[in-house]
Each structure stands twice: as C-alpha cells, then as structure tokens.
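Lecture 7 notes: from sequence to structure.

We start with a single chain of 279 residues. Read the sequence below before looking at the structure.
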Amino acid sequence: MADDKLVTHLVLDGVGGYMRGLSRIEYGLNAGAKAADDFRQRTARISEAANAVGNVGTRIMVAGAAITAVAATWVKKASDIEEQMNLFREVFKENAGDVQSWAEDFADATGRSKYELMGFAGQFQALLVPMGLTRRQGAETSETLSELVVDIASFRNLNQEDVAGKLISGLAGMHRALYDLGVVINEDQIKQELLRMGVKKNVDEVSSAEKVQARFNIIIERTRDAQGDATRTAGSLENRIRRLRSEYGQAALALGQALMPATQKVVSVTIGLLDRFNS
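Now the structure, written as tokens:
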C-alpha cells in the first residue's frame, strides 16, 4: 500500500509539472489568452476531482484523462501532420524537396498553410502515379492542382478539402463531382481532347495516364476565371480570415510537436500503471 501511494504521488507530481509546462507554453501565444484561462479552469476542476478520489487506480485514470483532455487536440494535429508527411515523402521520393519549396512559396503568397498544400499535393500524387504518370510529371501536375484547389475555394467560397476531393474524383473519371466547381466533362470532350493531344487510338487502347492528362487539360481550361484568385484577393476579408485560421493552425501544430515526446512518455507510464492496477 505504501508503494502504491508513493507511485501515485510521483505520477501526479510529474503530471502537475507537465501541465504547468503546458500553461507556460500556451501563455507564449498572444492569441492563446482565452485558451490559457480555460486551461487553468480545467486543471483546477481536475485537481479537485483527483483530491476527492481515494483509490490509487482512479487517481491514475484522472491524471491520464487530464493529460488527454488538455493536450489531445494539439498532439492529434501534430500526429496527423506526421502521418501526412510520411505519405508526402513516400509518393514524391526524390521530388519531395522541390515540392516542399513550392508549397512554402505559395503558402507565403496566399496566406495558407504549407502543410495543407503539401497534403493536397500528396493526395494528388498518390492518384496520378498509379495511373501512369512519372513521379516528376505527377509532382508538377500535383502542384498545379493544389494551387487550383486554393484558387477555386477562394473564387467560389468553398471548403478547400471539398474542392480537393471533387478534383480527385473528377480526375479518376467521376465527372459529376466536378459540376459544383463549374466544370462539365463528358466522354465526347475527352475524345476531342485526346485527338488534340495527338492520341489517335481506339478508346479501349487509351492508357489511364492519357485519360487523366485529358481530364486535367479540360479542368484547367474550364477554370481559367478562378486561377490566381487566392493571390489577387489575398486582402479580402474572407481570405484574411483563412490566413488567420492558418496562422492559428500553425501555432497549434508547433505546440503539438513540442508536446508529443512528453505526452508519449506520460501516457506510456499511465498505461503501465493502469495495467498493473487492473491485473
């Protein structure tokens, strides 16, 4: 029993130090004042609940829940970005550095997150390469399509993720998905575009890469008005709000990345203690 009390004391003391660290980090963000106040209130409530609990197992669970409740959003965001970057590096291979540089430049010009842009580019590349494009061709096309995502979303006031999903569906042959973006594609148009490209084959002989290139060309032609809109209207209220969200997201990501190592250690210790208690 004495050992259990000592373990509990050490865990809760460590959690307290960890959470005080969270508070100091959060205070470093000018925009985080409100969140910091909420953080302190949650911590106080959790502390009161923990003091009212008598047994070791429940105290440990309360401590673990405190960490999860406070840091989950930040750490989840950092974890998602980590997974996204793994996919990004895998699909672009030797082109990853060039695409990342493009994302950083376009993010600065439009007030978007470079991680959002890299995420869009990775999704497009993951579609284009299996359809027959080389990684270099896919990288260039993915950059153009990712810029188009941002421009169409700005031009038509749509959600960027929705636009990206519709473009991916359209490139894969689900043309109806493009209607909301002002793009209509049918089989006759694809045949005409293939002829313009110099592809003179029977329909059954046309490769997936040639078809996706034809769809891409038509999409680019049909969205001329939207292209460049995010840069042209960067000072508009809607795009300034998008920039604000992007900056907030970057700050939350930085917090999550800083907290991930400590969170992993504390959660591992908590899980170990709970396993010991439950057994």
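The first helix runs from residue 2 to 27. Keep this in mind for problem set 3.
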